[in-house]
Amino acid sequence: MLHVRVDKENGQETINKLRELDLINREYKILNDGTYVYIPVNKNNIDFYTVDIEGAPSNRIEPEKISFSYDIIGSIAIIKGKTIEDAKYLSDFLKTRKNIKTIYLDKGITGEFRTRQLTLIYGEPVYKTIYRENGIRLMVDVSKAYFSPRLASERLRIAKEVSDGENIVDMFAGIGPFSILIAKNRESSIVAMDKNQNAIDLLLENLKLNRLRGEITPVAGDSGELIQQYENVDRIIMNLPHDASEFVGVAYKSLKIGGLINYYEICDLPTLEGRMESFREMGLELVYKRVVHGFSKYQNMYSMEFRKL
Ligand SMILES: C[S@@+](CC[C@H](N)C(=O)[O-])C[C@H]1O[C@@H](n2cnc3c(N)ncnc32)[C@H](O)[C@@H]1O
Predict the structure, then answer these.
(1) Ligand 1 within 6 A of 199 CB?
(2) Which of 21, 218, 300, 305 has the fewest Cβ atoms within 10 Å of its own Cβ atom?
(3) What is the C-alpha to C-alpha distance for residues 300 and 290, in angstroms, rounded to an integer?
(4) 284 burial level (CB within 10 Å; 0-12, 13-18, 19+)
(5) What is the ipTM score, two decimals?
(6) CATH number, domain at 82?
(7) Which of 144, 172, 226 to mutate to test the pocket of ligand 1 (most atoms within 8 A of CB)?
């Protein structure tokens, strides 16, 4: 297995150069024998001193076998793991990716603003980054406001479903990924609410970063109260997966007959069935349901769409 060999002192600088050139073989671990650093590379005849050493099978990094996952948001990788040791192991693999400048361990999303508890594992303590998704650009601050790249296909599905002219309330808008993608593609009028002022400030930045066909009005505050000012709404987006059910009653009142709710919930199957039953009794007909992703052994993140009868 071909490795670039450098003195320990020049290790990090050489790793950075090789990353820039996209030469590192990410399937193998970077080794350090105390004197030299050995960086696995995927090309011969490169402008560095190389040695051919037999990589022991244990040196092979197999992140798919690690029982936790990671998200890449712009230049930041976020590992969701149990221990710092496990996170460092995975970060050895992630830091060989050309665009990753910072790696954090996320100890969990907490509080009503759903923000992350982050510990720096690698790189500079940078929190802001530009994330690109489905033709939009978003300024994300991974420490101050919620953002997850995992709903990208869901956001695209909904943006395609919206018609020009719809008036929409995005009740838990965050930094605006649903609202911005919809307004980028449709001449819709969207009120984007969030209780976290930092999320609204980022949303305002994101409005400037994207050329939109529709209009977005950001509003900071409790959407359970704010939504009561609106009536005859065509569509309400409710992405607050642990607590959205508490807000369905007020959302229902603001929705026009025939209007739609895009509803997200993390729950187990019996809870889901109970939810669908109680919404049906309220006068909401289920028109769409799918699992977006797994969450725990018995829980999934569900996407559901309800129509007001
Ligand atoms: C799961 S995040 C979703 C954000 C965004 N829709 C996205 O997909 O990235 C939920 C958001 O709801 C906000 N939030 C929580 N409770 C709220 C409330 N009562 N009123 C308004 N926003 C609230 C949080 O600050 C957070 O930004």
Answers:
(1) yes
(2) 21
(3) 10
(4) buried
(5) 0.99
(6) 3.30.300.110
(7) 172
Tell me the residue type at 124: E
285 lies in some domain: yes
Q: What is the CATH number of the domain that holds 209?
A: 3.40.50.150
Does 194 sit in the ligand 1 pocket, CB within 6 Å?
yes
Are residue 216 and residue 91 in the same domain, yes or no? no
Q: What is the CATH number of the domain that holds 29?
A: 3.30.70.2580
109 lines ligand 1 (CB under 6 A): no
Range(s) of the domain holding residue 162: 146-308
| 13 sits in which H/E element | helix 11-20
Is residue 242 a part of any domain in this protein?
yes
The answer to whether 237 and 260 are in contact (CB under 8 A) is no
pLDDT digits (tens, 9 = 90+) for 75-121: 999 998 768 888 888 888 788 888 899 999 998 888 999 999 999 99
Ligand 1 midpoint to CA 21 (Å): 39
Residue 250 contacts residue 227 (beta carbons within 8 Å): yes
- The Å distance, Cα 271 to ligand 1 centre, comes to 21
Residue whose Cα lies nearest atom 27 of ligand 1: it is: 174
24 DSSP assignment:
B
- Over residues 275-302, the pLDDT tens digits come to 999 999 999 999 999 999 888 878 999 9
- What phi and psi values does residue 54 have, to the nearest 5 degrees? -75, 110
Let me know: does 145 contact 202? Beta carbons within 8 Å.
yes
Question: What three-state secondary structure class fits 97?
Answer: coil
